[in-house]
Structures are given as C-alpha cells and as structure tokens.
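For anyone still unconvinced, we reproduce a single protein record, the chain in one-letter code, the fold tokenised, and leave readers to judge:
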Amino acid sequence: MTAIKVPPLGESIVEATVSRWLKNEGDAIAVGDMLVELETDKITVEVPAMTAGVLTKRAHAEGDVVKVDDLLAEIDESAAGRPAAAPAAAAMPAPTAPTPAPQAAKQPAPAPVSSNAAEVRASPAAQRVAAERGIDLASVAGTGRGGVVSKPDVIERAAEQPRPEIARPVQPPPAPPAPLASVQPSPAPSGNRETRERMTTRRKRIAEHLLESQHATAHLTTFNEIDMSAVIAVRERLKERVEKEYGVKLSFMPFFVKAACLALKAYPVVNAQIDGDSIVYKHYVNMGIAVASEAGLVVPNIKDADRKGMLDVSRDITSIAKRARDGKLTMDDLTGGTFTITNGGVFGSLISTPILNYPQVGILGLHKTQDRPVAVNGQVVIRPMMYIALSYDHRVIDGQQAVLFLIRVKQLMEDPASMLID
C-alpha cells in the first residue's frame, strides 16, 4: 500500500478542508491522476497520485478538516496490472444466457451517469449553485484552472437557459376567485425569509485571520489627504502612449506602489515584522495588493516591488489581478508579503480604517477621489482629493513615524516627478 498524505500547504498554513474527491474507492489510478482537492484559506490544492494502482481507501470525507501529513488515501500498487471494477462490469452483459441478460443490461445503465459526474470538476460553490438552479454540470464549460467549473461559469450557463418559472404557472389549473380572497389577508411572502449557508473554509480562515490581527496587534489608524491633480495630469498625458508603446494600461495603483516603496525606504520600521521579542527589518518590499475575488479577499504580492519600474509594477498588478479573478493564484503569489495596499475607492469608499494583514505591521488604505473645496494660497479652489489611511501596529511603529510615512506618500503623489529622483 502507498499512503497519500496531506502535502505541505504553504507558509503558516497547517490545515485544509477536503473540498472534492476526484476519484472513488476501487478506481484504477495512473501516475499523476488528481485524487482530491483541498481548500485552504488562500488557494485550492490538488493532490496527485505519485504511483499507479487502485484506490483502496479514502480516509476522509468531503468537508473534513485535515492537517499537514494526515493520511488522505491509500493506493494498492500491486493491483496496478489487475483488471479493475470497470472491466468486470463491462463483462457482465457478455454471458449468452438469455435470462440474466435483461438484469445485466440494467446495471451498466447508471454507470455512464456516475462516470460523467466524476469527470466534471467543479468548485464547491459551483456545485451548490448548480444544485439550486437545476444546472447539469456536465453541460457547463469550465474556465477555472485545469478546466474546473467555477461559480460564474454556472451562473452564466443559467442565464443562457430559458427561465423555467415562466412555464410553471401554466401547470396548475387557475382558480380565479381564490387568489382575490387570498391576496388581501396575506402580507408575508410564502417562502423562507432567511437562508443559512455554511461558511467555506476560506471564509472561516479569513475571519480568523482578521480577528487574530485585531487581537494580536496594537491596532491604530492615522489619516491624511492627497490632492490628486498632479498625478491625474501625468496619467492623462502618458496613458495613451504607454498603452500604445508598451501594451500596459496605466492606472493610479503603480504610482501609489512606487510612492509607498519610497516611503518605506525612508521609514523601514513600517516594513518590519515582530518575531517573538525581536523586530525583523525587511530590506526589500513584497507589496501586497488586496483583491476582491469570488472566494473572498485575497492579497497576492508583487515580489521586490521596490526594485521595479512603474511599467513593470503595472504589468505585475494586471497579471495578479487576472489570476485572482480566474482562481489561478499560486502559493508563491500569496506568501512573503511585507506591506499591503488596499483600495476601497474602487467600490466608492470615502474613508475607512483597514485591518492589518498580520503579521505585517502596516497597511495603506486608498479611497475614492472626489472633488472638494480646499484652501490653496489663501483661496478656496475645487480639487480632486483622496483620503488615505495608514493602519499600523503601535507596538512597533510610533505615531510620529506613522504620520511622517503618510506625509511622505502624500508629498510624492502630489509631486510625482520627484519619484524619478529617488
């Protein structure tokens, strides 16, 4: 027997949930076949078979929580050359005796359904939505990693189908007098007013992580505001040329990444981390960018962002955002971050206090740019203004350092040409 165990899941991840079994007990297994999907708080991990044989045991059911190195399954290598259950079933209709033939014909009938269902790979969310809306997963084209059917795939397929609810009222015979009497005294809807949905492992881990951040740090937030006039003018002047010559859509985020990297260089404690009774200073910046995905909030990071130019940063942001939406982030994308930027402004947030991405000690929050009256040289003028927030761990970062860091970001964004000097 070969034991299949839970593999290392990545930095600081010690457990996962058995999301979906791809093979059944008794199935013939080839080297490289995917046996099971494990869902962590960051990514979905597929566990392959390293040897050929027959899957004799599944040690855990879907929904079970497992830890690194726990037994997942067992494969009988000695059975690799034997005929598996499928060939035996195929031989059942072969007998020439006329009497058992009808029974033998009935048994293989459900087999194709079971086989097709096993071949369709779909996320738990996709399976749930498909069950709710009566969608056959076999008819849905998967756009996820390795052809996995995702929730948006099922929703899109449901939108293409003719709506069955239009046909349902035709089924029961109408009773004209009854509705008139029943409509008036019935103020409440007939269906359930509440629904209950089990939290996914990822959502539970996100909740635990955020609570840990609040409980384990001396969490504090300081604010400032930026006149975005200068950076807007630079972007408007360059965006068309940059897209034409380099194929990169220039957004405001690369400017903030560059400004944050330079501010972290000036105030390295904001890029540090507590390890026991020591402070670890990072002389590099792996810039985390918070991204809203189907599975929840994820924070992939741009490695060595402080050593990259603005165009490279812009390419990296576009790439990780696409991988996050497609569910194709790797463990390397999601680990090793030293500082995070989150942009609630894309959803219309005017001001907020972002929660630290623990064990990081600083996170920069961006918000909506909005025209506001401000005083400039003794006169009131209308300028595009953005509130920015720095949440920080007061155990490491003093208020003075936090305020000065935010002022440095403000100075660089209000004079973007000064970034070239640094």
Remarks:
- Residues 2-82 form a domain with the OB fold (Dihydrolipoamide Acetyltransferase, E2P) fold (CATH 2.40.50.100).
- Residues 83-118, 163-171, 174-186 have pLDDT under 50 and may be disordered.
